[in-house]
Amino acid sequence: MSQPIKPESFRELVASGAVKSVTILGQKGGYALLASIGMQQRPLGTRSGDVRMFSTADTALKLLRELGVYHVNVDVTHYQAGSLRPPRPDTAQKNRAANAALEHDKWFRAQVRQARDGLENGTVELVDSEVMWGRLRARARELDASQARPASEQRRKA
After folding, report:
1. Do the domain assignments include residue 48?
2. Listed residue (16, 5, 99) closest to 50, CA to CA
3. Angstrom distances, CA of residue 50 to CA of 32, 94, 102, 111, 118
4. Is 102 exposed, middle or buried (0-12, 13-18, 19+ CB in 10 A)?
5. What's the domain count of the chain?
6. Which of 57, 99, 123, 133 lies at a CB distance of 3.0 to 4.6 Å from 118, suitable for a disulfide?
7. Considering the entire predicted model, what is its pTM?
8. What does the pLDDT look like over 80-92, one tens digit per residue?
9. What is d(CA 122, CA 115) in angstroms, rounded to the nearest whole number?
10. Residue 105 domain-assigned (yes or no)
11. 3-state SS, residue 10
C-alpha cells in the first residue's frame, strides 16, 4: 500500500469530492479503508502515519457514513479472522473484580436499606453495644462449657 492519508486530510478530500470511491479492504484481523483519489489508491491512516485498522466492518462503515461516504466497495479477499490487539487477561480480571465489587455494593446497600426499613417499622431493635457484648460473652461461655463436658454427656443432652 502507498502512503496513508491522515484523518484530517481524508475528511477534507471527502468534503471536496476528490474521493472517487472507498473500498473496505479485509486484512489479517480487521479492515482498512482504501480511498481512490485521482489515479491513486491510498489507505486511511492514523495521526502517527500508520494504516488505520478497524476491528469490524461496522466501525469502518460508521466512520464513512459520518464523513458523508454512502457508497463503498467491500473486498474481503485477504480477510483473516483474528484480533488486531493481543488478548488482555489483565483487563478481563479487572472487569471481573469490578463486577464483583458492584455486586457486593448492591448487596450491602440492600442490607442497609432492610435495616433502616426495619428500624422505621419497628421490626428491628437497636441494641446498645454493652448489651450486645454481654450477650456475646454469655453465648461464648455457654459454648466453652458445652465443649468442656465429656462427649457422653453431650450426646445425652442432644
Report:
1. yes
2. 5
3. 11, 30, 39, 53, 62
4. exposed
5. 2
6. 123
7. 0.51
8. 887 666 777 788 8
9. 10
10. yes
11. helix
Cα–Cα distance measured from residue 146 to residue 151, given in angstroms and rounded to the nearest whole number: 9
Helix and strand counts by DSSP (H, E) for the chain: 5, 4
Instruction: State whether 93 and 71 are in the same domain.
Output: no
| 116 shares a domain with 56 | no
**What is the residue type of 84?**
L
Is residue 61 domain-shared with residue 118, that is, in the same domain? no
State how far the Cα of 75 lies from the Cα of 60, in Å rounded to an integer.
13
Nearest-angstrom CA–CA distance, 98 and 14: 42
Rg (CA), the chain: 34
Kindly state the cell numbers that stand for 16: 471536496
Within this chain, do residues 13 and 64 fall inside the same structural domain, yes or no? yes
pLDDT tens per residue across span 39-88:
899 999 998 889 999 988 999 999 999 988 999 999 999 888 876 667 77
